[in-house]
Amino acid sequence: MSDDEAAVPGNKPIRLPKKAAKVKNKAPAPLQITAEQLLREAKERELELIPPAPKTKITDPDELKEYQRKKRKEFEDGIRKNRMQLANWIKYGKWEESIGEVQRARSVFERALDVDHRSISIWLQYAEMEMRCKQINHARNVFDRAITIMPRAMQFWLKYSYMEEVIENIPGARQIFERWIEWEPPEQAWQTYINFELRYKEIDRARSVYQRFLHVHGTNVQNWIKYAKFEERNGYIGNARAAYEKAMEYFGEEDINETVLVAFALFEERQKEHERARAIFKYGLENLPSNRTEEIFKHYTQHEKKFGERVGIEDVIISKRKTQYEKMVEENGYNYDAWFDYLRLLENEETDREEIEDVYERAIANIPPHSYFQEKRYWRRYIYLWINYALYEELVAKDYERARQVYKACLDIIPHKIFTFAKIWILFAHFEVRQLDLLAARKILGVSIGKCPKDKLFRAYIDLELQLREFDRCRKLYEKFLESSPESSQTWIKFAELESLLGDTDRARAVFTIAVQQPALDMPELLWKAYIDFEIASEEYEKARDLYETLLQRTNHIKVWISMAEFEQTIGNFEGARKVYEKANKSLEDAEKEERLMLLEAWKECEVKSGDEEALKRVETMMPRKVKKRRQIQTEDGVDAGWEEYFDYIFPQDQAAKGGFKLLEAAARWKKQREEAERAAQAELDAPVPSREEEDDEKENDGKEEKVREGDSDTDLSSSSSSDSDSSSSSSDSEDSDDDDDDREK
């Protein structure tokens, strides 16, 4: 086909579509552009802004009509495109109103209502347009139609009544309100009607509206309070009081509200009726639950502080505290401290017995949970509730049979196989003693030591029998006690003291003898001391001395030695005391230096009392010297932490023993060297004639022996001893020199 053939009539060539070029590089561009960036750039460059149309001045009526025609066409086109866009209808109607075409505007609004007759904004704009044009009857007609179609729309009623009030058509406005409240509208509508009547001083009409209002919305407490305050403001005190009373009747005792009670009481307070206010407060406290009486307590307290007496104020505070305690125990029934405080408050205020017993029963019903059932520490606070309950029944209520039942119930609830409370058993037994029933008391204590043989129960039982002078029973109880716990030193001592008080010295001594033979005792020192004191009190000094000797065979304690020496002093045997001190000094040579110093000081004091000057000087020569030394401190990790100073005691006998030990070491060393020399000489005699080389070796050996002999001298002894003294102590320079002088003398 040629170019001429491809042409169309009119000599316009047909453009054939070209083949799309293939994209060679499909990699993303290095600079990415987002839609947000495009929109921002368009806004910055103002690409979408259309310049405003130029202002035109219309001077010709025909031009004006043409302008109105175009404007109407624009509005009609907009409505035709979207009939449901109500804003277009409203703009259209307002524009017609602005050019004075009220009839056309009314027609536009009527057309809009045909589209959506339940649009509140269209009805309001329609009515406002009529009011602006001072077409009151037309506006009334619009409002009547609106409230007929939508009677629950508050805006129509408010605007309608306001319009009538503005044109001073008060009866018409009242008629509108009456029509409105027939529909039982919300509280705001009633309040608006009431305020309308109050603006025109129509008190009776406002009261009537209030009464009708309360029939409809009486469930709201604030409405009753508003009505009562309305009557009070206008001086109708009787009507106000009647309003509060009707409010209380309306809600009844079950649904009574604390707000009404507080407002009623404050009203009576303003009227100087303090007794009536107090009665209202008390009524609320008695009939309302504790969690709703906080405000009542607050205002009641303020009322009593202003107008009440001291007794009344205390009653209010006590009632408030009761409420607080009730709240605490309701939140946590295992808060035993709160129960204690609550019960103490009730008992101090001498509340009725029934109320106190009820609180006690509620308290003891909170047994520790099963997870804590086997742990005694969770029962320690709880068990005192039972104790206080029993004591209250016995001492305050004087109901002894009920107290006995409380004790029995408490003992039944305690898991005696796991643990027990000796206090309960003892209190129960003492209660029976106070009731002059000794058989029951003995039975209770017998059952207690049978179920759970505790030391406290045995002692309480023994004390009871001692007070009753039943000594044979006491002996039997002590025997049972010792069978149960033979390691108790106190029990053995008490048993022996009992026998001693009864004048049976042999039995007491036998008890002590058996006691000290027990293999395991918790406090053997107390037992031995009591045994020795018993023998001393019996003036059996030889037996006491034998006991001391026996005890010293078992232990080498410093206090035993000093006690034995003091015993010898008390009987006037200073020589025996001196011998005891000498034995102790020899026995305690390896003991701590503080104990040895304690012994020497006691010995010195003994010699001062005896008056023997020579013995006193001898003891003084044995007294140690007090020196200051330094030692290195190490932490728990073994790291050096510096040096510390401490005081040490140097005993003369330790130094003497130390010097003698060094001399013995030197003698042993000399003896060893001498024996080696003799063996060498004997070997030389027994050996054959040596060669020349062997003679040279012998000369070398002789030289070595001479060197050894040179080291074996007095000077070497003194030097070695002095070096040993230097290495054994880290004292001051003066102490080292004194040690060297002592070694040289020895």
Automatic annotation (TrEMBL):
Q: Which family does it belong to?
A: Belongs to the crooked-neck family.
Instruction: Please state the protein's primary subcellular location.
Output: nucleus
A GO CC annotation recorded here is: post-mRNA release spliceosomal complex
Domain of life according to the entry: Eukaryota
**Where in the cell?**
Nucleus
Biased composition range(s): Basic and acidic residues = 701-712
Annotated region Disordered: where? Answer: 1-27, 675-746
Biological processes per GO annotation: spliceosomal complex assembly
What's this protein's name? Answer: TPR_REGION domain-containing protein
Q: Which stretches are tagged as biased composition: Basic residues?
A: 15-25
Composition bias, Acidic residues: 733-746
User: Where is each Pre-mRNA-splicing factor Syf1/CRNKL1-like C-terminal HAT-repeats domain found?
Assistant: 89-308, 320-546
Bias (Low complexity) occurs at: 716-732
Keywords associated with the record: Coiled coil, mRNA processing, mRNA splicing, Nucleus, Repeat
Q: Which InterPro entries match?
A: HAT, HAT_Syf1_CNRKL1_C, Syf1-like, TPR-like_helical_dom_sf
Q: Does the keyword Disulfide bond apply?
A: no
Methyltransferase as UniProt keyword: no
Coiled-coil ranges (or none): 534-601
